[in-house]
Specification:
Low-confidence stretches of chain A: 1-7, 274-284
Mean pLDDT of chain B: 84
Oligomer: heterodimer
Largest sheet of chain B: none
Order of helices and strands of chain B: HHHHHHHHHHHHHH
Number of helices of chain B: 14
Strand content of chain A: under 5%
Number of strands of chain A: 0
Number of helices of chain A: 13
Helix content of chain B: 55-70%
Distance between the termini of chain B: 34 Å
Structural class of chain A: mainly alpha
Helix content of chain A: over 70%
Distance between the termini of chain A: 14 Å
Chain lengths: 284, 308
């Protein structure tokens, strides 16, 4: 298999050019969108010229005050951390059982955990939000944390299962032979081996929770809005929305947060390994 | 938890033993927290929602008739609501198909080693951090009438009139590609990396051209992965909500089902009708998913001889 990666074709095929052209178009759109938002967020007035009239950082101050971003960012971080902690604590033991054991009804339970991932969030989000409101939990942080657990717990289970399967069961057996109880097997043997997997799953859940719009939007309100929902509300609020630059400033804050999280996540995990459990033979 | 010597009673031990042979032992208790979450936050609300759909409001019953089924009658007979099924499909199917088909050649090219591969991969994965709301804002600025894209095209003389790229079907389609493509690309790359390169090598030795190698070896081995990726990207595209409102034409071409469900929920406070639309949305989506997964089960499912 080393041969195929070292070999180079003599001339580029037309299909290769086609792919490169497509990627270039994608890159232009992507960078255009990113740069346009950043430029807009620092711009004074920007109507029909190539660049805004002048540059200022006031938009950030203004957006911060007007949308109570201190509170919003606090809520976003708090919700995300809670969701990560709970879904890891609940999901990892479940993933362990599903990876190691075979028992009656296993397929039904797997399906139960798969369904929230296979369904659009709105389909279960609306009945769930109705239940939340009828329990008087509407527009609270508790409700936001609870709804976010629905996709996060299955996500942790699905991500952790391959990680656990990679650990040789003989190690656990050895620990048990030496007299370790299940709790000790977990804390002394599995947990240290699973740290990379738990970090990866945790960070991915963090990124997903911060970015998840639909479910949070259905149950949140003033005081429990996360950053994405606050931006959406700003864009759609009555009277054609807030000044565009304020929204851009908020979007930049949001993207910067997400980018930091993703960079951290990618340091711990190679995303292509999550799905197919393939070990790269070498890093290139 | 599993200490065998804890309870020495003979009867319990043998029952426990028999259960353990079938795989039921105290370790299964580790599943309980996750099951509680799934039952309390997914199964219960879902059943509650189904119950809610047959409790239509008085206004609904008066307008559409049908007794307790008034919500369903309204769903199928009110063109304003029912047309959203077609509008959603018209958006989600092409977008998911495009994302899957476009990521195959890209993933094939990125399988080889070359300079800047890491940078390119990062660039392709970057949009995952953007989220639909920021993508919408960026598209409005970048591809709007006064945006850089139209400006450049006008300046180079390719077009005479600014193109209408946002606030319509195209805007939402772009947004779905930008958020869905990285996801499809990641999945397809991981499936491709599971196919043993020596299979292709062998075909090459036998004189197969690149198209023969792709059609006869890569494609059949990749097909199940393609189906899975299609399903997952379709779910993403099907639930399109913020972008349909922000860069779409919310009351026209992109009046998707999730918008209608949210309208009933948040604006009309008709929870019963909202649940009905949400359930119908799930039903339509599951039909597509089951159809694709059914086709997938016809395909080859053995080992791909990968590196793992």
């Amino acid at each position: 298999m080393a041969v195929s990666t070292l070999e180079r074709p003599l001339a580029a095929r037309p299909s290769t050019w086609f792919v490169w052209a497509g990627m270039a178009a994608f890159g232009v759109f992507l960078l255009g969108i990113l740069i346009a938002v950043v430029v807009d967020s620092f711009g004074r007035q920007w109507f029909d010229t190539w660049l805004p009239d002048g540059f200022t950082t006031e938009r950030y101050v203004e957006a911060w005050d007007q949308f109570a971003l201190g509170e919003v960012v606090g809520a976003t971080v708090g919700v995300a951390v809670l969701v990560v902690a709970i879904s890891v604590l609940v999901g990892v033991p479940a993933a362990y059982v599903l990876a190691r054991r075979d028992f009656p009804g296993k397929r039904a339970i797997m399906l139960l955990f798969l369904l929230p991932v296979l369904m659009p969030p709105i389909t279960y989000g609306i009945p769930l939000a109705t239940v939340m409101y009828s329990f008087g939990l509407g527009r609270t942080l508790t409700a936001v944390v609870l709804v976010n657990l629905v996709p996060s717990v299955p996500f942790v289970i699905l991500t952790m299962t391959p990680f656990i399967e990679q650990i040789n069961p003989a190690i656990e057996s050895a620990a048990r032979m030496c007299g370790a109880r299940t709790r000790q097997v977990f804390t002394r043997v599995l947990a240290p081996l699973l740290v990379p997997g738990i970090l990866a799953a945790g960070i991915l859940v963090l990124v997903r929770t911060v970015g998840l719009f639909e479910l949070t939007f259905l149950v949140s309100g003033p005081g429990s809005d996360t950053l994405v929902v606050a931006i959406y509300r700003g864009m759609t609020s009555a009277g054609g929305g807030e000044a565009r630059q304020l929204i851009s400033a908020m979007s930049v804050i949001y993207t910067a947060t997400m980018l930091v999280m993703l960079v951290v996540a990618l340091r711990f995990v190679n995303p292509t390994q999550l799905v197919a459990q393939v070990k790269e033979t070498r890093d290139d | 938890m599993t200490g065998v010597g804890q309870r020495p009673q003979r009867a319990t031990a043998s029952l426990r033993h028999r259960l353990a042979e079938r795989g039921v032992d105290p370790a299964l208790l580790l599943l309980v927290p996750a099951l509680v979450v799934a039952l309390a936050l997914f199964v219960y609300p879902f059943s509650y929602g189904i119950g809610l759909t047959i409790q239509p409001t008085a206004a609904m019953q008066e307008q559409w008739g049908g007794g307790i089924l008034a919500n369903y009658v309204a769903f199928f007979q009110d063109p304003f609501v029912f047309d959203s099924v077609g509008l959603t499909m018209r958006l989600a199917l092409p977008a998911a198909l495009f994302n899957v088909l476009a990521s195959v050649p890209v993933a094939m090219v990125l399988r080889h080693r070359f300079r800047g591969k890491r940078l390119l991969t990062s660039l392709l994965v970057l949009p995952i951090t953007l989220g639909t709301v920021l993508t919408a804002q960026g598209l409005l600025i970048f591809a709007g009438r006064q945006g850089w894209l139209n400006r450049t095209l006008l300046a180079t003389g390719l077009i005479d009139e600014p193109l209408q790229l946002v606030n319509n079907y195209l805007g939402v389609f772009f947004s779905l590609v930008i958020t869905g493509f990285p996801f499809a690309f990641l999945l397809i790359s991981s499936y491709l990396s599971g196919i043993d390169p020596s299979l292709e090598q062998a075909a090459k030795t036998l004189g197969a051209g690149w198209w023969q190698r792709f059609r006869r070896i890569i494609l059949p081995l990749l097909a199940p992965g393609l189906a899975t990726t299609f399903v997952l990207t379709f779910v993403l595209a099907f639930s399109v909500f913020p972008s349909a409102r922000l860069v779409g034409d919310a009351m026209g071409e992109t009046r998707v089902m999730s918008l209608m469900a949210f309208r009933a929920f948040g604006e009309q406070n008709d929870y019963a009708m909202a649940s009905t639309i949400a359930l119908m949305m799930g039903a339509v989506e599951l039909i597509v998913v089951v159809a694709v997964l059914g086709l997938r089960s016809l395909l080859y499912r053995g080992t791909t001889g990968g590196k793992g």
